[in-house]
C-alpha cells in the first residue's frame, strides 16, 4: 500500500512539473523586471492552486491548495475582487498547469507568485498549458478592468480564435444610460508562446471590447512569441479599445496577413509605446510587422477625429513572402502597415509614428520592406524622429533583384493622395526611396515633394550591433541630437515622447535635442578644465554607447 501511495505521488508530480533545459536570458529577465506590477505588500490569496501538491477537494488554503486554477475560480466564495494564486516552480523545473481556464464573468485577479515577488523567474516557472484543446485562457463574459491575469507562461492553445488568450464581449452589446458593457481585462507580465488559431489571433484575440468611457483592454509587459494564425499571429484585435505598452512580438507567423499584430478598427488609450517587433513572417499576405487601423469608439468623436500614436518602437527583421511563387503582387510590406481614413461614423483617422526604428525588414513585392502607409479618404499619417535603414523589396523574387526600399504610400480610390508628413527622420536613400502606389491606376510614381518636411537626413545611423539584434545607436551616430523636441504638422501639435524604449529620459541631458529612433543615447556631463584661466571650470557633454 505504501509503494502504491509513493507511486501515485510520483505520477501526480510528473504530470505537473518537468525539468527544462531552457533558461531565460538576462535580457528576458530584465524585460519582465520593468513595470512588473508586483505589490508592495504581500497579497494573501483567497484561493491557492498547486498542480504538484494540490487536490481539487482541498479548501484552497496556502497549506491545503487545490490542484487546478479553474477549481479555485469555480468556488462560490471567489467573487469580484478575489485573488487566485497559482504556486510557481522554477524555469528549470516549472509547475505546469495542464488546463484551460475561464474567468466566467468574475472580476478577479489570477496570478502566479510573481504578484508578490516581482521575480520574472516566476513567469517562466508557472505555465498554463492548454494541451491543444481550445483557448488556454478565456475572458469573455463582460469582465472589466478589475479582471487581471498576471505572471504566467501561456502555451499550447489551439482554437479557431485566440489560441492563447480569448477576450470578447460575449457576443452582444448592452447599453445602460449611455454605457456599453464589454470585456476589458488587464493582461500583464505574461509570456504567450506556441499557440495556434486557425482563424484569428494565435497569441491573443480581442473583439467587441470597446467602451465609450475609454476603458481599455490593458496589455503591458508581454512577450508574444512563436504563435501562429491565419491573420494576426501574435495579436488580433477588432472593434476594441486598447492600452498596449512594453511588449515584444517575436517570431510569430501568419498564413495570410499581419504576422505580429492585426489591430483592426481599434482606438488606443495613451500611446502604443515601446513595442519590439522582430522576426515575424507572413506567407502569401502583407504586413509581417503588423497592421494598425484606428477607428472611433461609439459616442466618442473628439475633434471629429481618432488618432493613434506609436512611439519608441523597434520593427526589425520581419518578412512578407509568398511560398513557392515569384509573383510580385503578393508578400507586401515586410514591416509595419499604417492604414487610415474615414471610419464607420464618418470620423477621420490619423496615425503618428514617433521615435521608432525600422531596419532589415523584407518584402517580396515592389512595396516597402519598412513601412507601408495605406490612405483612405482623408486619413493622414505623420512620421517623426524615426530611422529607416536597410529595408528591402523584391526579397526572394526570381525575376527582379532585391533592392533597398524604405516607405510605400498606397492611395486607395477617393483618398487624399500623399496626405503624409515626414519630418526629422533618417531615411536611407532619402526622398528618392519613397514611392507611391496608386490603386485605381495600378501604377507606381514618386510622391509629391511636399510630404518631405524639414529635418530629414540620409546617413548611416551606425547601429551598435545589428547582427546580434542591438539597434541602439553609437555615440557618433548622425541620428544623435538631430531629432526635434516639438513639432506641428497640418496645424496639429504632435507630442514627442519624454523617454525611450528602455525608459531613458528624452532628451539626454535636458536642454539638448532628442535622438532619432527608438533609443536615446545616454548623455552625461563631465567636468573638464580649460587651459585658459579666465574660463575656469567648463562642462563637456558626451554620449557613450548605451547599455
Account of the protein in words:
The chain contains 5 helices and 46 strands. It is mainly beta and about 550 residues long. The chain has a domain of about 375 residues. The strands form 7 sheets. The chain has a 29-stranded mixed β-sheet that branches. The chain has a 7-stranded parallel β-sheet with strand order 9-14-17-19-22-26-30, with no helix packed on it. The chain has a two-stranded antiparallel sheet with strand order 11-12. Strand 43 and strand 44 form a beta hairpin. The N terminus and C terminus are likely disordered.
Mean pLDDT: 84
* Major sheet details: 29 strands, mixed
- Strand content range: 35-45%
Helical content stands at under 10%
Distance between the termini: 59 Å
What structural category characterises the helix and strand content?
A: mainly beta
What's the alpha carbon Rg, rounded to whole Å?
Answer: 25 Å
**Number of strand segments:** 46
**How large is the count of helical segments?**
5
Poorly predicted sequence stretches spanning 5 or more consecutive residues:
1-15, 170-178, 297-304, 323-331, 528-547
Q: Assign an overall shape.
A: globular
